[in-house]
Amino acid sequence: MLNVKEYVKPNKVEEAYEIGQMPNAFYVSGGLMVAQLKISKVEHLIDLKSLGYEGIEDQGKEIKIGANTKISALMSDKILLLYGQPFRDALKEIGSMQIRNMATVGGSIAFKLGWSDLTTIFMTLNSKVEFYDGSFRKESLEAYLVGNHKGAIITSLYVPKPSGFWAFEKFSKSTFDIATLKLGIKIDIKGKKIKDARIVVGSRPMISERQEEVENFLIGKELNQMIDKVGDQIEKIVKCGTDIRASAEYRKALSKALLTKAMRRVEDESRVNGQR
Ligand SMILES: Cc1cc2nc3c(=O)[nH]c(=O)nc-3n(C[C@H](O)[C@H](O)[C@H](O)COP(=O)(O)OP(=O)(O)OC[C@H]3O[C@@H](n4cnc5c(N)ncnc54)[C@H](O)[C@@H]3O)c2cc1C
């Protein structure tokens, strides 16, 4: 049970960060995960909601999303329509409406959960994280996930404007269950050939990870000729673990099925919409 001695709601990130460096201090945004912490020694709870960092802004080449923005706000935003139906469909499958109304972008990324759909989606879209740890810094989301950022406050996410085609697939045992495995793919095409590829697998059950060997295998090849071949590659390479949801072998087999399905979606979209 939580045993909070002090609750603060600072207006400035510098102040929040300073308090955050005290022993047994925790940040809270949407509060969904913080409410479930099974520790009794939370002495300082630092509510980040008054810092601002909420909303979505078109900045030309990229889109800035404040860390306090709720998942439900991402779903209804006009600027984010740029990422097309796969984006809205993926968000619609996160938990329930109540969860999407509470969970924030910052809270979803900071916890470094393997099952965070937002992490897989934004990593596939090649996003950067801005955070404050005494000064403001920016890092790719994939670097952030493997780095040590204890005590840092995530302030914003920067997502490049879309190019090429992308898809997101996940497998869950029931609608509200977290994913057993999920996968995002983004492909840029020149002529008929794949110019660039990003493939990210999440819920392995470890944190989302890029599959660079498979990406490199695809580059320079024709998309439609790779659909039935690339699945074997990822099944061999992807690193998965076993937990109560599935064995590592089952997850590896799922990665093949999800990648093949995602490649088909990307191919369909590229046929309908041409090169972009
Ligand atoms: C039953 C249930 C099912 C769910 N299903 C899914 C699902 O299928 N897919 C999915 O993607 N998500 C799902 N979620 C949502 C999810 O994974 C997290 O609960 C949620 O994203 C956390 O966001 P929050 O804003 O509530 O974070 P909080 O609980 O406020 O914080 C989470 C952690 O991040 C830290 N933190 C918060 N904000 C910041 C910040 N700005 N900078 C640095 N650290 C910060 C906190 O100290 C805490 O350690 C589900 C949640 C629940 C409760």
Report what the structure shows:
- With 276 residues, the chain is α+β, with helices and mostly antiparallel strands.
- The chain folds into three domains: 6-48, Uridine Diphospho-n-acetylenolpyruvylglucosamine Reductase, domain 2 (2-Layer Sandwich), CATH 3.30.43; 56-160, Uridine Diphospho-n-acetylenolpyruvylglucosamine Reductase, domain 3 (2-Layer Sandwich); 165-273, Enolase-like, domain 1.
- It is built from eleven helices and twelve strands.
- The chain has helices at 13-20, 71-76, 84-92, 97-102, 105-110, 117-124, 141-146, 212-218, 223-226, 230-237, 248-273; strands at residues 6-8, 25-28, 44-47, 56-58, 62-66, 128-132, 136-140, 153-160, 165-171, 181-190, 193-202, 209-210.
- The strands form three sheets. It has a five-stranded antiparallel sheet.
- β11 and β12 (209-210) form a beta hairpin.
- α8 packs antiparallel against α10 and α10 (230-237) packs antiparallel against α11.
- The longest helix has 26 residues, at 248-273.
- The protein is globular and about 60 Å long.
- The N and C termini lie far apart (52 Å).
- The relative contact order is 0.11.
- The mean pLDDT is 92.
- Bound molecules: flavin-adenine dinucleotide (FAD).
- Flavin-adenine dinucleotide is lined by residues 26-34, 48, 67, 94-95, 99, 102-104, 106-108, 110-111, 113, 115-118, 153-154, 178.
